[in-house]
Amino acid sequence: MSAEGSDSSAGDGSVGLRVEVLSVVFQVRETQPDTAPALCVLLTKSSDAWALPGGDVGAAETLSESARRLLADKMDVRKVAHLEQLSVFSDPHRVPGIRTIASTYIGLVPTDAPARLPAEAAWHEVDALPSLAYDHADIIAAGRHRVAAKLSYTNIAFALAPARFPMSELSEIYCAALGYAVDTTNLLRILSRRAVVVSTGTVGKTGRTGGRPPALYAFADNELRVTDEFATLRPPM
Amino acid sequence: MSAEGSDSSAGDGSVGLRVEVLSVVFQVRETQPDTAPALCVLLTKSSDAWALPGGDVGAAETLSESARRLLADKMDVRKVAHLEQLSVFSDPHRVPGIRTIASTYIGLVPTDAPARLPAEAAWHEVDALPSLAYDHADIIAAGRHRVAAKLSYTNIAFALAPARFPMSELSEIYCAALGYAVDTTNLLRILSRRAVVVSTGTVGKTGRTGGRPPALYAFADNELRVTDEFATLRPPM
DNA sequence: TCAAAAGTGTTCGTAGTACACCCATGT
DNA sequence: ACATGGGTGTACTACGAACACTTTTGA
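The joint structure predicted for all components is written out below.
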C-alpha cells in the first residue's frame, strides 16, 4: 500500500514538508450604502501583501477542523455556515523556503453574521482585489468559480443568506456571487420546486421608498444538498 | 499570511507529518467474456489487505506529478488519460503510527490501454471489492461518485473510451460507470449536440452474431471540458 | 428470409426563460 | 392617486426520455 519503504526516484517527502491550510471565506456585503451588495473575500495583511487567512494543521485535527479553528482564533470569524474543500496547491515553488503544500477550503458566511474583525483583517470585493501573496489570487479565482457553479445545482446559497429574507434580497446574493442579474420571480419558482426555499408565512417591512411588503422565505436545509444531480443521463424511472 | 509564527493552540504541523498520494484508477474492463464490461479499480496487495496505489510526494514534484510517477514506476500504468484531484483525507487516526494525510487523485485509463501489471497488482470490480486497508474503501466510493456525476455534464468519458468506438461500446462504458442502462441513440444525440463526440466517417466490423456494421466515433477533445456548465441560472443571452 | 445490431424519426413531458399583468403599501 | 416594489400567470423554447420504425449486415 501507500507506506511501503523506499522508492526509486524523486526524493522523499518526509523531510522539510509543511502543510498549511488556507481558507477562501466569502460573504456578500454592502460595500457602499444604497448600492447592490458585492461578493467579498476575507484577507489579512502581512508584511508586504494581502493574503488568505490560514496556518498550520493541528496535530489532533482534521484539516477542516484546523481551518475552522484558524478562522475563529485569528480572524474572530465563527459563523462559517458552510466549509468545503477546494483544492490542494502543491507546486514545489509556490512559496519560497521550505516546501509548503496548501490545502485550501471555501468558507461561506451569511450576510447577517456579526463582522468584527481584527485590525489586520479586512473584506475585499472579489472584483477589486489588492496585490496578493504567492498563488493566493489563483486560489480565490478557483473558489469563486466553484461557488458560482454550485449555486446552479445545489442549495449552497443557504450559507450566504440570512435566516429569513425576501426573495429580492436572495436575488441580490445570487447576482453578487454569479456576476450577472437573475430574474427574481423565476428564482423563486426554481428554488420552490426543488424545495430549497420555503415560505415562512411572515412578511417584512416595506422599504423607505414605498412598495408592497415582501414575503419572507427561509432555506429548508442548512447543510449542502445537491438539488439537480443529473443534468442529463438520469437513471431510468 | 499563512506562515506567521506560533499560534495559540492544537500543536504544530511541522513535526511528524507525512503526506501520501493515493490514486483511484478506474478502467472499464471485460471481466467475463461475452458479458457487459464492468468498472474496475486498480489495487495492490499489501501484507494483509488490498490498498490503493500510491506513496510519498517527491520533493521536486507537484502532487499530480507524484501520482503519475508512482503509477508508472510501481504499477507500470502509463496511459492515464485523465488525472484529477479527488479530495484530501486527513483524519488524524486514519492510519496508525505517524500522522498521514492522504491527497487523493482519480485516474482514468481507456479500455484499449495495455494492461500489463506487476504481480502484486490487480483490477477489481468496484461492485465486488475485497477487504481494503484503512479508509481506502471510502476513497474509492468518493471517486466513483465523482466520475458518475461528471459523466453527466463533462466530456470525461474521453478518458475511458478507446480512440475510436461504435456508440454501442460507449454506451456500455457509460453503463458500467453509472451503474444503470443508458439509451444508446439518445446518448449519441446528446453528445453530438454538445460536440463531445464526432463521427470519424469510418465503420467498424459487424459482430459474430450478425448485424449492421457500426459507424465509428471519436471524442472531439482529450482534455476535460465542462459541456453543461449552467444546469440552471444561465447568464442572460 | 430471418435474426441481430445500428441508425432515424416522432412524440411527449418538463424545466427554465422572458415578460406582461395584477397587488399592496407609503407619500 | 400614483409611484414603487412584490407577486402571479402565461406563452415560448429547448432539451432529454421513450420508443417505434427503418436499414444493413451475417447465417
